Amino acid sequence: MIESLPRREREVFEILCSLGEGTAAAVRGALAEPPSDSAVRTLLSRLAAKGLVAHRTVNQAYVYAPVAQAGEVAETALQRLVQTFFQGSAAQAATALLGMEPGLDAQEIDMLQRAIDKARKEAE
After folding, report:
1. What phi, psi does 63 have (nearest 5°)?
2. Which of 32, 34, 63, 67 sees the fewest Cβ atoms within 10 Å?
3. Cβ(62)–Cβ(56) under 8 Å?
4. Closest by alpha carbon to 94, among 76, 110, 81?
5. Residues of the signal sequence (predicted)?
6. Helix, strand, coil proportions of the chain in percent (round to 5)?
7. 112 CB-near residues (< 8 Å, 6+ apart)
């Protein structure tokens, strides 16, 4: 469902995922080239109507949060990224991501090694 959203709705949804939750003003502040306040509220209302966003009232302000789990959204976005820019190769994408990182700590290296070991066992 996320892939089929118009660009601005997807951008708003992804911002909410990264924030965890936020007001329309917080979302607007995180948008590149933000539209008007009312346009942001309209985008949030559309996402709520589609069942992707919920809101609660805090001090007379709506606080919005994504209904879908951020992990699910991240996985879908990552799959789209790998397909679009790395010809479907997770290894190429991982190599590119590691090239962006100036230095990994021991815990991150161990996590990557476990993932590599698991992939190697599954390939055997």
Report:
1. -115, 120
2. 32
3. yes
4. 81
5. none
6. 65, 10, 25
7. 98, 104
- How far is 63 from 41, CA to CA, in rounded Å? 11
pLDDT in tens, 79-123: 888 989 999 998 888 888 888 877 888 898 899 899 999 999 998
- SS3 label, residue 87: coil
Tokens of 31: 């948008």
Residue 81 in tokens: 């990224």
pTM exceeds 0.85 = no
User: Three-state SS for 59?
Assistant: coil
Give the closest residue to 12 by CA, choosing from 92, 71, 23, 75. Answer: 23
Q: Are 8 and 47 in contact (CB under 8 A)?
A: no
